[in-house]
């Protein structure tokens, strides 16, 4: 009998190119990842494993999957661990790290609006981390969106908002989009900051005639088996 975790790794590996080249390029990765939220332990394990890959596309897909894991307390440090990993990678490959942090930020938008307090707080903490990094010298290109989403989620009460508002010109050098977001708050321009808020992508269904459907079915079956093993 095949080990369920080995089966899951194999199924995930087989589906990655299709998930990126077909689904993600059309903004339809939710068709694959949303159904996996029903299996939080196995999905969290898979996302965490993918997040440690040397390949940035695999790490981006890990964040996309992680964004759907909003229920329960199994995965509340998942996005934070992903962000920590990209901080380390940024020291030698800022381009790839920035690309992955973009998807971590978008994943946090779903967490920050979840019904669970622990999930909401974890998502908001990711926003705050991105903002604090940006004003401390790590120029994430989604810091403006993280700032706007954090402001919207907390009505401006998170300490990271005040820290960003107090940032000097030198701290914001080379980060015009973040500077614009901060200036919108300083000048009480509610419309401007609202336009910067990024809502989560809606879930879409996988078309019955999609060529990758067999890959999706195998991945869904494998992750269901792994969840059973996790709960055994």
Task: Explain what you see.
With 232 residues, the chain is mostly helical. It has one domain. Helices cover 65% and strands 0% of the residues. The chain has helices at 4-23, 30-33, 40-50, 56-66, 78-90, 94-111, 117-135, 143-154, 159-165, 176-186, 190-195, 213-230.
Terminus-to-terminus distance: 16 Å
- Note the quaternary state here: single chain
> The biggest beta sheet, please?
none
Listing every helix as H and every strand as E from the N terminus to the C terminus, the arrangement reads HHHHHHHHHHHH
Compute the CA-based radius of gyration: 18 Å
Portion of residues within helices: 55-70%
Q: Supply the helix-strand structural class.
A: mainly alpha
What percentage of the residues does DSSP assign to strands (E)? under 5%
Shape: elongated
Q: How many helical elements?
A: 12
Low-confidence stretches: none
What is the domain total for the residues?
A: 1
Mean pLDDT value? 96
Q: Give the number of DSSP strands.
A: 0
Write the layout of secondary structure elements.
Blueprint: H1 4-23, H2 30-33, H3 40-50, H4 56-66, H5 78-90, H6 94-111, H7 117-135, H8 143-154, H9 159-165, H10 176-186, H11 190-195, H12 213-230
């Amino acid at each position: 009998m095949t080990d369920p975790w080995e089966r899951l790794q194999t199924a995930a590996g087989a589906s990655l190119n299709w998930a990126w080249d077909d689904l993600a390029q059309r903004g339809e990765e939710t068709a694959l990842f949303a159904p996996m939220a029903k299996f939080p332990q196995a999905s969290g394990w898979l996302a965490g494993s993918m997040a440690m890959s040397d390949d940035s596309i695999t790490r981006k897909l890990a964040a996309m999957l992680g964004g759907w894991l909003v229920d329960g307390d199994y995965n509340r440090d998942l996005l934070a661990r992903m962000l920590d990993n990209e901080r380390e990678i940024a020291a030698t490959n800022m381009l790839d790290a920035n690309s992955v942090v973009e998807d971590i930020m978008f994943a946090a938008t779903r967490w920050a609006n979840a019904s669970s307090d622990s999930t909401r707080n974890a998502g908001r903490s990711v926003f705050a981390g991105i903002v604090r990094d940006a004003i401390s010298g790590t120029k994430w290109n989604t810091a403006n969106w993280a700032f706007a989403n954090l402001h919207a989620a907390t009505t401006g009460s998170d300490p990271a908002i005040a820290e960003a508002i107090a940032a000097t010109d030198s701290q914001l050098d080379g980060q015009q989009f973040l500077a614009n977001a901060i200036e919108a708050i300083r000048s009480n321009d509610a419309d401007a900051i609202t336009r910067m808020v990024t809502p989560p992508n809606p879930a879409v269904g996988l078309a019955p005639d999609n060529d990758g459907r067999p890959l999706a079915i195998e991945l869904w079956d494998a992750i269901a088996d792994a969840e059973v093993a996790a709960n055994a």
